[in-house]
Automatic annotation (TrEMBL):
Domain Mur ligase N-terminal catalytic: start-end pairs: 9-111
Statement: the UniProt record of this protein carries the keyword Ligase: yes
Gene Ontology MF term list: ATP binding; UDP-N-acetylmuramate-L-alanine ligase activity
EC number: 6.3.2.8
Pfam families (UniProt xref): Mur_ligase, Mur_ligase_C, Mur_ligase_M
UniProt domain Mur ligase C-terminal: residue ranges: 311-436
Pathway: Cell wall biogenesis; peptidoglycan biosynthesis
Protein name: UDP-N-acetylmuramate--L-alanine ligase
Amino acid sequence: MELHDIKRVYLIGIGGIGMSGLARYFHHLGCIVCGYDKTSTDLTNQLHNEGIQVVFEDHADYIPMSFQKPCSDTLIIYTPAVPKDSHIVNYFKSHGFELFKRSQVLGLISKSSFTIAVAGTHGKTTTSTMVAHLLKASGNDCSAFLGGISSNYQTNVLYGKNNVMVVEADEYDRSFLTLFPDVAIITSMDADHLDIYGDHAHLTESFKLFASQIKPGGTLVHKNGLPLDGGYTYAFEDETADAHASNVRIIDGDFYFDYNSAAVNITDIRMGIAGTHNVENAVAAIEAVLKLNISPENIKAALASFRGVKRRFEYIVKTPEHIYIDDYAHHPEELRACISSIKRLYPAKKLTAIFQPHLFTRTRDFADGFAEVLDMVDELILLEIYPARELPIEGVDSQMLLNRMHLQNKRILSKEAAVAAIASEKPELLLTVGAGDIDTLVQPLKQVLSNE
């Protein structure tokens, strides 16, 4: 299938962050775009307002007439998160349609572009959004498919006037193996998605395969210490890497650092977002865009104006009385980076966290890691596990995590009870964290802490 032949696009799971980006992209090209998702969200409402039809009933009767027979100009895209017994999926399969995964379509779109792909078990969304902003803000431009909503552009897809494309390369279901980038960044390779990979060794093997798919003459940029051959390495404060951050400090609540490599030194970089982990992400982004001859002056200005990604260390309330940060972290190492950065920023404040575990398998596989890192907070409210695509596993629940923790101030509450507790206790420093539907608490919590 060629891109210029596509006139109609149906997306099964259109409300997902990656799928909605494809919906917007094809709508931008002038295609008729519609799709299905199981629940209405702010994102599906935005798609509707942009002229993209979305239905929430998994029934073939809701498929538009123009999509009911296979046609060479019709593209059907699905996400692996949709259950195999979906009526809409099975309608398309039984009527002779060829179904494409999101990752296959992303590979098709990026095939003829100069592609910068950012992979990693964590850090990839912020780093890819940062790379795209560095290119946009420096006047070099790019298109981009992002795994989150950019706070600078208020969208997850960007349209450029040149041939450069930035894509977030997702390791889930080995999706990133459909990509053949010119520049690849690998931020991390910690064990995750063991329901797909079985063990860490198979996950590592997939990342190595992804790195091997870089086009001839292309560039690999990866975090120092990863088991990868060749390429350029980066690190936070490790001088053995090809590029590293040094002189990291906080001035009036902002992170500053120096970028150092054999070829380039950039001093007194002010970050527009907080977090030591984001300083490390910035080093990776700088190293990548320097390969495209972006000037140090433009890099420095762009990082100062970078506003991050929704739900990635996002300040919701920032007043003298209350600090409230929301974050998407759902792996122990992501939680560690987030909590460590908050404690570095606010060492004298008592940290209250509300955490929603994501997936029964992930909670089971990393129970000890979650317990250890959650013990870093001063007070914890734990929500029940968000199942996403999974069925419950006997003995795996939030109580299991609580039992493994040493923290005294810990409890399990419903979402409604958590909001009520925060309204009553009004903590000075609050973190909500998780990848499920904990984001539905953000506005209610903002209201009770802002006295709205």
